[in-house]
Design a protein that fits this description.
The structure is a single chain. It is built from 14 helices and 12 strands. By secondary structure, the protein is α+β, with helices and mostly antiparallel strands. The relative contact order is 0.13.
Length: 407
């Protein structure tokens, strides 16, 4: 079967009962993608005003974006790189004419993390080869529905629905496996509280700690209350840092708002950072909260970040890339997409060197393979040989040694 025919095979809908037809998205657009109906009215751009949330999304999306992806084929016990595959350039270098692979994957990751979904249209040439993956703003998605066994995407700007096989759809947390749920949906209340604390602090700084209150006196004032109020507002409305208000005739100002100390602003802000870290499943030290980090545990926390935070997202991307950019026949022939997470150790020379040393001395990598990982040219042929620890032997080596010794 040719490449074009194989892709046509991908578009052939599976036979399913019409009773499964219906919308997975249409009546729940706000719930699945934009947030919730919380009184806080949390939206993506609003949530990103929180430095901890912004930095967490930025950190995770950067890690997803900087990891190189490539297409491979499993051939027996070997893994063959397939740079000749038409889709390899789309996931490794140039997904479309407007973006690099880093920018494309970061843009997709931001949408994926905040809205729970990231979508891109796969374009094919006349021969049926994929030539471009174009980012689609999730706000443009009107409906995702099942019709006669085929999953359809109704997107503004397109004359007809897009087939599931025509799009890359990365889904984060999902209840049905079809549409993702944005973290803001569930975190709206907590993020709203964090924004209120932030706004309270900003307002107190702007007003030098003086806000609503009452002017008290033991005397009865029959007339002139409006003038007193107006005079107070005029004086306190000045932006000058040395503004002065004089209260005479026994008048006293009594504030009725709580102070930052009473509101425990500092403690609340620390709690908000930790809670945002939980929502994003990211270690607090990655979003610059180092209170519980030490030189002894920071390395372990970084390893936990790679395995617990980044690896699940990378696996998600790998499988969606392979499913949509490789044909069914190629998948049967062992094609797959793999991301090289070793890049996360690129700036950590100590950990990288130790990992390389263990690999070479353990005999499961040779020295030229390590040079390749470091973007160095291959060395002498002797570096292609695998080392074996002198204090370990296989059964065959032991038998050979015994025979040589005549025992």
């Amino acid at each position: 079967m040719g490449f074009n025919g194989a892709f046509r095979e991908m578009f052939t809908p599976q036979k399913r009962s019409s009773s499964t037809d219906g919308s997975y998205f249409g009546n729940y657009g706000g719930f699945f993608s934009l947030g919730s109906s919380s009184v806080y009215g949390m939206k993506p751009k609003t949530a990103l005003k929180l430095s901890a949330f912004y930095n967490g999304v930025d950190q995770i999306s950067n890690d997803i974006a900087k990891i190189p992806f490539a297409i491979y084929q499993k051939d027996g016990s070997n893994r063959l790189s397939r740079p000749d595959h038409p889709a390899n350039i789309l996931i490794s270098t140039a997904p479309n004419y407007l973006m690099t692979s880093f920018v494309f994957r970061k843009t997709m990751a931001i949408s994926y993390l905040i809205r729970g979904n990231a979508l891109a249209k796969i374009k094919y040439n006349a021969s049926g080869y994929p030539v471009s993956t174009d980012f689609i703003n999730w706000d443009l998605v009107k409906d995702i529905r099942l019709k006669k066994g085929e999953l359809l995407y109704d997107v503004r700007g397109y004359d007809k629905p897009l087939l599931a096989s025509e799009v890359l759809h990365f889904k984060n947390f999902s209840h049905n496996g079809i549409v993702g749920v944005g973290v803001i949906t569930y975190a709206a209340q907590q993020l709203g509280m964090a924004l209120e604390v932030q706004q309270f602090s900003a307002t107190n700084f702007e007003n030098k700690g003086v806000r609503q209150g009452v002017i008290q006196t033991d005397k009865t004032i029959e007339k002139g209350k409006d003038k007193i109020i107006a005079g107070w507002k005029t004086a306190m409305g000045e932006k000058s840092p040395d503004r002065i208000v004089v209260l005479d005739d026994g008048f006293k100002f009594q504030p009725i708002n709580i102070t930052p100390q009473e509101a425990q602003i500092i403690e609340q802000q620390k709690f908000n950072i930790e809670d945002i870290a939980r929502w994003l499943n990211i270690a607090p030290h990655k979003i610059k909260s180092l209170e519980q980090s030490t030189n002894n545990n920071i390395e372990q926390q970084s390893m936990d970040h790679n395995s617990d935070t980044i690896q699940p997202h990378i696996t998600n991307f790998e499988q969606e890339y392979a499913k949509k950019l490789c044909t069914p026949s190629e998948l049967k022939d062992g094609y797959f997409v793999r991301a090289n997470m070793d890049v996360l150790l690129r700036t950590d020379i100590k950990s990288r060197s130790e990992a390389y040393a263990r690999a070479v001395l353990g005999g499961w990598r040779n020295r030229n393979e390590i040079r390749e990982l470091e973007d160095l040219n291959a060395g002498p042929e002797i570096l292609d040989e695998y080392l074996t620890p002198v204090n370990t032997f296989t059964e065959s080596q032991i038998d050979k040694k015994l025979k040589e010794d005549g025992k």
